[in-house]
Queue: 2 jobs
Job 1
Amino acid sequence: MMDLLEKDGFLVVRNLLSASQVKECLTLIKDSIVKASNELGVTKEDYLSCTGRWATKSPITRSVSFMLDDKIKEYLENLLRSKITFKKSNVICKTSDITDPIPFHQDISYSPKDPYHFSLWVSLNDVCKDSAPLRVIGGSHKKQVETAADFWSPYFIDEHNVNNQNTRSITVNQGDAIIFDSKLWHGSDENRARKDRFAYVTRWVTEGKDFPQIPDIKPTNFGMFNCGELTNQILKESLSLFDIKPKILNKEALIMLWIEILTANNNFGGIDSVVAIKDLKKLNILNKACDLHDAGNISGLVYKNLWHSLLSILNKKIKLVKI
C-alpha cells in the first residue's frame, strides 16, 4: 500500500469507518448544522447554500473530530510506519445548491507558511460518478509546487481545468477514505446528482520529513484571496453614488444599508434590486457563519452571484477593481 501511495500520490482505503460510525458522524454533523442555522435565525437549507466548508475550530467540525481523529491517527501511523502530527481538519459538504466542480489544484500551495504532507479524505456518503467524486492526476505529486491556483478569478470563470491522461475519478462508498499527498493535483467533478455529499478531511505532517519550496500566494483581481475585502471596499466606496459619505460600518451594517438603498432605488443603473438584495442577504449569512462557526463558502457561489448581480455594476461606476 505504501508503494502505491509513493508511486501514484494517492491511496484508496475501503471501509475505514463502519456503517454505524458513518451514521453517528452524519447525525452529529447535521445536528450541529441545524443548531448553527438556528443561531443565525435562518433555515438549514439557506445556511448550507451559503457555506459548505467548516474549519478546525468550527463546532460542526469538532462534533466529529473528537470521535475520529485518534482513530485516524492510529491507522495512519500503522500504515506509514511513521509518527505523524495533526495539522487541521474540515467538514466539507456539496449540496443541491453547491454543485460546481472544484478545479485541479495542489493543497500545499495554499499553506506556504504552515504546510502539511498529506490529507485523509473520508466520505460519509456513497459517491458515484454523478455525485462529485474526487478527481486525481496520478503521479503529479512528483512535480514542483506551483503558485496557488485562484480558480475564483478572474470573476469566477474557471481557467484551471486540467486534461491529463493520468486523470481518474474515484468513486467510493460511505466509510471509504482517500489518502493523498498535499502536492498531488486533484479536484472534484460537478455534483450532477444534486444530493448532499459530506466528507471529513484531516491534514497531517510526517515527523522528520522536509517540505519542498512553496511559492508565495499571489492575489488576483477578484478571487478567493481578496474577494471578501474587495466586496466591502466596493460597497463602501459606491455609497458616494447616492451622496452618502462612507462611515465606519461593520459588515452587517454595511449590507443592511445597501438593502435599504436598493429597496428605495429599484433597478438603479440596471441593477435588479430583488436579486441583489437576495444575494446580499446570503453574504450576510456567510459572514456570520464565518465569524461564529469558522465556516467558508466552498465554491465561491455567494461572491459569484453577488459579483454578477451588484458588484460588477457598481465597480464599473467607481472603477475600484481592474476589469
Job 2
Amino acid sequence: MNLAVYTKSLSDSRRGLVGWMLGTAAVGMMYASTYPSQKDNTASLPEALRESLHIDATAAGYLQASVFGVILPLLAMIYGAATGSRAVAGEEEFGQLDLVLAHPLTRTRLVLQRFAALATGAGAISALVWLALLAIRDSAELTSVTPAELLAQCMNLALLGIVFGALALGLGAAFGRRNVALAGTAAIGLLAYTAHTFAAQIGADRLAYLSPFHHYIGGQPLRHGFQWADIGILAATASALVALGTWRFARRDINT
C-alpha cells in the first residue's frame, strides 16, 4: 500500500482542510490586526492598573495573550479532535473499516498513515497562519516580533493540534467509538488548559508542566524563539498517544 492511505486521506479531506487553513489564518489576521488600537487603549490606563492586572502592551505580549493564547489554540484543538476521531473510529462506526483492512494493510500502518495525514494538515494550517501574520506584520505594528519568533509559535501551534489529534485518534483506535474519542479529548483538553492557567494561582506550579498548553506557549516563543525542549516534549507526547492507541487497536476485535 506504500503511502496510499496517507495520500487518500489528504485527498478526501482537501476541501475541509482548505477551509480550516483559510478560516484559521483569517481569524489570526483579524485578531492580530487590532493590536494598534488595543495598544492605544492600554496606554490610556494608569500605570498602576496595568501593573496590577499584569497587562503586557508589547506586540509579543498581545499576541501571546489574545491571538495565540486563546482563539488559535482552541481552533487547533478542535481540528485535532475532529480529524483524529474520524481517522479510525469514524470509519469503524460506519462499517467501512473492514473494507480498508481487506487490502494488504496492517492496522499499525493504517493508524500511522492516518496520523501522518493529520499532522500534515496541522502543519499546513499553521504555515498559512504564519504567512498571514507576516503579511500584516508591518501594518499591524508587530515588527518587534521577528519572523523566526512567529514561526516558532506557529510550529508550537501545529504541535498542539497534533497532540490533541493524536489523543483523539488514539482513543478512537482503542475504543472504536467516535463519541468516546471526542468526549475524552474535550475533557482532557479542558483539564490541561485549567492546569496551565491556574496552577500558579493555587500554588501548584509543577502541575502546569503536565499540560501541553504549558509547553505550547509557556516558554514564550514570541519572545525567545524556538524552545526545543518544549517542542520535543510535545512531539514525544503525540508519539506516545498514537503508540498506545495503535497497540490497543492491534489487539481488539473490530465492530463491523
